[in-house]
Write a structure and sequence with these properties.
The complex is a heterodimer of chains A (about 140) and B (about 400). With about 140 residues, chain A is mainly α. Chain A is about 50% helix and about 10% strand. Chain A has one domain: Sufe protein. Chain: A (Alpha-Beta Complex), CATH 3.90.1010.10. In chain B, strands 4-10-9-8-7-5-6 form a seven-stranded mixed sheet, sandwiched between helices. A four-stranded antiparallel sheet of chain B has the order 13-14-17-16, with helices on one face. The chains are: A mainly alpha (about 140), B alpha/beta (about 400). Chains A and B meet through helix 2 and helix 3 of A and helix 13 of B.
Chain lengths: ~140, ~400
Amino acid sequence: MTNTFKKVTESIEKASAWQQKYREIMLLGKTLPALPEVLKTEDALVPGCESKVWMFVEFDLKENTLVVIGDSDTRIVKGLLAIILALYNGLTPEQVVNINAYEEFDKLGLISHLSASRGNGIKAMVNKIQTMAQQKIS
Amino acid sequence: MPALEFNINKIRNDFPTLKQSINDNQLVYLDSAATTQKPQSVIDVINEFYTSQNANVHRGRHTLSEHATTLYEQARDKTAKYFNVLSKEIVWTKGATEAINLVSNGLRNRLSKNDTIIISALEHHANIVPWQVLSEQTGAKLIALPVNHDGTLNIKQCCDFIKQSKPSLLTITQASNTLGNITNLEPLITAAKNVDSLVLIDGAQGAMHLKPDLRKLNCDFYVCSSHKMLGPTGLGVLYGQYEALNSLDVYQTGGEMIDKVYLTHSTYRPAPAKFETGTPNISGVLGFSAALDYLNAIQSSELHRYEQELFKYAAEQLVTIEGITIYSNLSDNIGTLSFNFKDEHPYDLATLLDGYGVAVRAGHHCTQPLMAHLGLNGTLRASFCFYNTYEDVDIFINSLKECIALLD
């Protein structure tokens, strides 16, 4: 697990009431820099029904690591995006495929946000990152 | 059976789904525009069918089949009576969407580039896309009624529009699923009839809240959905004035709908049979029958009065919250509040409300053209039903205030 991930999720883990948990998620979202408008293209949209999520998954050839950036028009999804970014950013493809976002979200008590009915694109984000990592390995 | 007095405590008790906690809070279900909860009697009938009555209908001379067929056809009679039309004018479909598709497909050989179809910006996607396809296939012109900036209709302007456009078909919703606004249908239907246009009414939202007399309404087609009127999912109703219905081309073909089948051609039975091929959703029809029994047992004027008072109470509370914008027309509404808080995304507030056990919908509600018309990306929608209580409204309002505070 990256240090960034440990740092960003500490406050969520500590939160006892669900209200506090959401507060921390939304605060996390605020720390994420806004994506420039020119990058918020149709192509960058992650398929999701109720919220818009723009995400770019690139590969840093020199460092052999994944670079993920993104933004969302909702506070909660942006916060969840920040967790995903902290989870995978800067990792090698081999490290990425070994990290299961579902397990990590479950530990944080956020697994329901990865359910199909949420339609928030978080699931699609994870798939996009994992697919990219798989492609780099093979 | 004489209609019972409206007793909310008794009614609450009839809906098992409502008696549960969500996230450690009592469930406050305000998403009935998406689907209504089901009374125990509907659940029992479906259970009973599969436990002791299961058989195919219209086939077999055995006792179970005959019994199932009787119940199945009684449901059709009951539906016809509910809408004050004839049993042979009722077709079972798998939903309101399929009912619209049945009509649009049935008109495919009748329309050409000289025809005009009128829809409105208020429509659910289900009452837009089938007509776009029909327009592409036939060359018929697809145009939209003028809708005011606030999502209401200027009836005089609309009637003039119909008079000038001389459509072959006018298709419009009885009540907006997003806003709850009730359409003043009578003058629009009269205007359409004056130019010999067919009229289809999307009753998905209106069938239960407004219980229309379709004979009086004088539309040619009316569609609705069982699951939005206490019944099970997977069943819809198409009403068609008999001549108009029977003149539609067949939609799907196969068994049951045929009269004589030869190897190279077949003849079809008259409506409604010619539109009901394959084994139907029998348990769904029986469940819907029980749902109609439930609705019929409550005086519809009482039901309407209660829903309107509850809606008024909710609207009055909601407007007092600073920063709230309501998009629904509050004076003529089936009981749906569409709103936003400042420029906050509805997704966030709906997610937070769920934490308090309050179920609302967020998004474009399958009405993207209406959202574009109102200049919005989406709204929060709280839709009420007669099984909701004043306490539900209080919890909803208090929870909403708490959620707004969490955004700071």
